[in-house]
Amino acid sequence: MFEDPSEELCVEESNFDDFHEECGVFGVYGHPEAANLVYLGLCALQHRGQESAGIVSSNGKTLFSHRGMGLVADVFDEDTIRRLEGISAIGHNRYSTTGATLYKNCQPLIAEYEAGGIALAHNGNLVNFEELRSELEKSGAIFQSSSDSEVILHLIAASRAPSLVERVIEALEQVRGAYSLLVLGERELIAARDPFGFRPLVLGKLRDATIFASETCALDLVRADYVREVAPGEVIVLTQSGMRSFMPFAPRPPKRCIFEYVYFARPDSLLFGRNVYEVRKLHGRILARECPADADIVVPVPDSGVPAAIGYAQESGLPFEMGLIRSHYVGRTFIEPREAIRHFGVRVKFNPVPAVLNGRRIVLVEDSLVRGTTLRKVIPMLRQAGAREVHMRIAAPPTAYSCFYGIDTPTRSELLASHHSIEEIRRFITADSLEYLSWEGLYSFTDQPGEGFCDACFTGRYPVEVPRRPPERQLSLFENHSRR
Predict the structure, then answer these.
(1) Is the pTM of this model over 0.85?
(2) Which of 129, 161, 380, 423 is most buried, by CB atoms within 10 Å?
């Protein structure tokens, strides 16, 4: 059984000009303050999703749940954490990739099946979600959400396998796509990662307790020791009898998401065996070698462009300057003024520093370029603040394809690089020059470029067949966009 006192809410969807974070998961087994640790872990993973947050705990007999829309610190307080009893718990931060921004899609999803209560937290995306949902509905299943993750719950409940872990394995044998998954039963916790290992998932230890997290920065916050990654295709079950590991699926070549290094993961995380900050800084160094500029200073687009800009400055010998300041207190929505202010939304987020920029030729470094509409507004702001020239450098190759494995991306028609040349994009964003990191430069951290990684957003090479999509309207470079 489970208890859930939350009420349904709805929030407006974001329109920022980025690839949006996917989701973050965190789980604890065997600790008297399991829910409190999960709360802290979700705070560390807040960058992976800001739409909603939730925690489900178990005292061995009952599941207790609290979920809500918004940031972790807004959803939970001391009273709600105190009511989440038990020594095991899982939590989730959400940014929707499938399913609308509604309370009913908050995770962990919770349900009852013949053996008791069950909760599920999922980071990823199932490419055969619609097919599976249609089959389940024809057999009588009633869905409570529009999230693809609920398909896994129904498959688990429909299984006739004798144990929960066997039910989970049987369910996962039917899905295609990306998943880093935590499943909480009343007496066990199960972690699973898809055979390609698209999305990250790590295992840690805090004395006698076992921790699972999307990134190591969450382990650091609760002072847990990093043990290892959950291997691609691995299923781990924790019970009172201890930990068991299974490798039940046919092995696949690893296809870890390269965009985790480019943008998503926190710089202080250890990801796929490497420190994210060091990889991004190396990308900046390689970018300086491949794409030098006759300039006076290097300025990052904060915050994600900072490590690459540091690397660019170090390699080029140009001074690093914070010529653009980002507000860290901007919510997902804000109130528009009655009297229109040009580029109001971008100005809420960014503000240039004239004392740094005035009369200087700048290299502006960003991690990636998606729609380009933010840069189209930022670069004129820099010129108005006194920048003499703005040379745009992107610390990744052109992003030309959508992701179907758990990242919220624009449609391909909205990605500038899918239909326009670098020169056309340069004119659109109004830069004096524009250059990208090469594909080889992207893999400068390894001597086997592309090996073990998914880079479909750059190359269009999808490791798992993706569903057919209807053609989308082509993005016009000369259109005034309300979305950024």
Answers:
(1) yes
(2) 129
